[in-house]
Amino acid sequence: MIKIIMPLLAMLVLSSCVLTKVVTVPMRIGGAVISIVPGIGEGIDEAIDSAADTIDTIPI
């Protein structure tokens, strides 16, 4: 039974949506932290957020 369940769980976890989220979530957290900086933080946060959106649309 475990030989059937483990590959199915691995396929679910390693789907493209999860793989792109592994990359983009730390980017978005870093952008949120940087956005605290007065003056330039918002612009950098927007650039990081748009880059993360682009990575999310990559069909892996």
Describe the protein in words.
With 60 residues, the chain is mainly α. It is 78% helix and 0% strand. The protein contains three helices and no strands. The protein has helices spanning 2-13, 16-34, 41-56. α2 (16-34) runs antiparallel to α3 (41-56). The protein is elongated and about 55 Å long.
How does the SSE layout of this entry go?
Elements lengths: L1 H12 L2 H19 L6 H16 L4
Helix pairs in contact: 2-3
Largest sheet: none
- β-strand number: 0
Alpha-beta classification = mainly alpha
If helices are DSSP runs of H or I spanning 4 or more residues, what is the number of helices?
A: 3
Whole-angstrom Rg: 16 Å
Strand content: under 5%
First-residue to last-residue Cα separation: 30 Å
Helix content: over 70%
Q: Provide mean pLDDT, rounded.
A: 83
The topology string of helices and strands comes to HHH
Please mark out the parts with pLDDT under 50 across 5 or more consecutive residues, or reply none. none
* Gross morphology: elongated
